[in-house]
Amino acid sequence: MTIEEAPLEAYDAHILGEQLTEMYADNEEDKRNVAVVTAGTAAEHSRFGILNFTFYDPRRKTTRLKQAGRGGIGTVFRNKKLKALIVKFSNVKGNLNNTFEQSIINKTGIKYHKEIHDQDHLQNNMRKIGTANIIEVMDAYDLLPVMNFQYGSHPDTEKIKSTVFIEKYLTQGVQDGCWYGCSMACAKAADNFLIKTGPYKGHRVTVDGPEYENAAGLGANCAIFDPEGILELNFYCDTYGIDTISFGTATAFAMECYERGIINKEITGGLELNFGNFYSSVELLHQMSKGEGFGTVVGQGVHRMKKLFAKKYEADEEFLFDIGMEQKGLEYSEYGSKESLAQQGGYGLTNKGPQHDEAWLIFMDMVNNQIPTFEDKAEALHYYPMFRTWFGLYGFCKLPWNDIVPADNKYSDEPAKVPEHVQNYLDVVYGVTGKRLTSDEMIIESERVYNFQKIFNIRMGKGLRKDDRIPYRSMAPVTKEEYESRQERYDKQLKEKIGYAPEGMTAEEKMAVLREYREDQYEKLIDAVYKRRGWNSNGVPTLEHLKYLDMELPELIEVIKDLQ
Asked: Is residue 60 part of a domain?
């Protein structure tokens, strides 16, 4: 390992990654052995910078990018004045880490490959479109975020549905995995895409994606129902080093504030931030890259924008909290949770903020009604965050778990858990390490880490019940327009769930009753989840639970002893 002075002028990821790959590879074939980690120019001027990881695509003969987003890791990278991290290694093989029993790994890998080959085209089409396969599905179920999560569907979703990208933009018939041995190969690319704005106007580039989150956040949530606009925003987020989810949600919040008169053209520096305005949206990215203009304000994220708009422009602080889709400082990922109490908990009761990688329970809860009681929801909000934390700890990809499932999975005892695939993970761990775990032991391993993270949050001044409050828009309609867009549904709920007769009542009166009910439901969910997780009513792990987990560390007890 060496530390070297960066010799090149470029900072943006698609150029710097290409340059450093050329510099460190001995020849064309050797490019496959070089990976470059970079941030980007905008990561320096925002709080949601990402890291880009290159891989060389020998079929396209270009260096491509995959991203680690969320949480501002790229901002930290640039703050430390790091330009790039280069890894070069040429001896990749199946038993490189001295596996305990290679035959187990081989057997499990063959099973995965056959299942993906046989089932993917019948299920989610991951090999053809990747995660963007669910754009139209989310719209159909009223779950697609539209105009800062006000609505869950839109007539123009037809313009950005997955088949549009497949037919017009994404390269088909090319193996597309971001890892050479991956059978799922869900990484997609739009080749020779013509850029229309900014410093790379007129350039033809390879764009990574779009993923579902990009199409939903950069597109529907900002009412930009233009596939080429989405791809250009996607490209600039990547090369500038900006998290697409946070940018989409933050821009949608700024757009709603603009349309409601909370901010204006004088404040935005002349930008018309109406919903649907692609050119203003992409200009925010160019400004972030240069560290100037209103783009740097949006780049601070929703949490800080709310504070700024309330303090400097005298906006209603509670209204901003209701419509500002962030929690614990992290912008919401792109799913509407109004009709799924479990998913509200899946966003709000996380250690790191509303990111669906801990628990995606919308279909279990809202569509399939598999977890009807508070206890059922609490059990799901215990198991899934722990399981998902566990496979992250071991470095597993989530997609082979439930994006393709066994053909007979629906006949298993708990199909939502995909038990055969859980066992696959456990088998691989055994094959690599020689450590044989049961599913219960797996969860306890994860609980130790999760509770450590929880106490660390408390030590840093967060992590208590007050910090698990979520914006009301993630629960129910904030405005009259939102209520009236689903009036039949909400009126029916008032009658059947609350026993309230909505006839003759104003929208505002009905909204007040609904709000009291929804917020009470969320508080009851918190109580049930805390109890299941072994925490007290303030969200603090109990000493008894730490003892159960063999986590009675003096450093942990010191933090929580006065909060019991």
From this structure: yes
SS3 call for 439: helix
Which residue, 68, 88, 108, sits at the end of a domain?
88
pTM metric for this prediction: 0.94
Overall domain count for the chain:
2
Q: In the structure encoding, which two tokens stand for residue 168, read together?
A: 């017009």
Tell me the C-alpha distance between 303 and 168, whole Å: 37
Distance between start and end Cα atoms, the chain:
46
For the purposes of burial, counting CB atoms within 10 Å of the CB of 166, is it exposed (0-12), middle (13-18) or buried (19 or more)?
A: middle
Which residues, including other chains, have CB under 8 Å from residue 64's CB and lie 6 or more apart?
54, 55, 56, 57, 178, 187, 189, 206, 208
Q: What's the sign of the alpha-carbon dihedral 414, 431, 130, 254? A: positive
Chain segment 85-123, per-residue pLDDT in tens: 999 998 887 778 889 999 999 999 899 889 988 888 888
Which amino acid type is present at position 408?
D
Question: How many angstroms separate the Cα of 130 from the Cα of each of 146, 174, 308?
Answer: 21, 13, 38
Q: What is the model's pLDDT at position 552?
A: 92
Q: Among candidates 460, 443, 472, 451, which has minimal Cα distance to 539?
A: 451
Find the DSSP H helices in 221-373.
227-240, 244-259, 265-268, 278-290, 295-298, 302-313, 317-323, 341-348, 362
DSSP code for 366: I
From the number of C-beta atoms within 10 Å of its C-beta (0-12, 13-18, 19+), residue 191 rates as middle
Chain center to CA of 130 = 15
Please report whether residue 392 resides in a domain.
Answer: no
- SS3 track for 482-547: HHHHCHHHHHHHHHHHHCCCCCCCCHHHHHHHHHHHHHHHHHHHHHHHHHHHCECCCCCECHHHHH
Query: How many CB atoms neighbour CB 304 within 10 A?
Result: 16
In terms of residue numbers, what domain contains 491? 466-563
Buried b vs exposed e over 94-104: b needs ≥16 C-beta within 10 Å? eeeeebbeeeb
The Cα-based distances of 19 to 23, 77, 325 in angstroms read 6, 19, 38
Give the domain-ending residue among 88, 103, 138. 88
Structure tokens at 490: 């909400």
**pLDDT tens column, 323-352:** 999 999 999 999 999 999 999 999 999 999
| Burial group, residue 2, by CB count within 10 angstroms (0-12, 13-18, 19+) | exposed
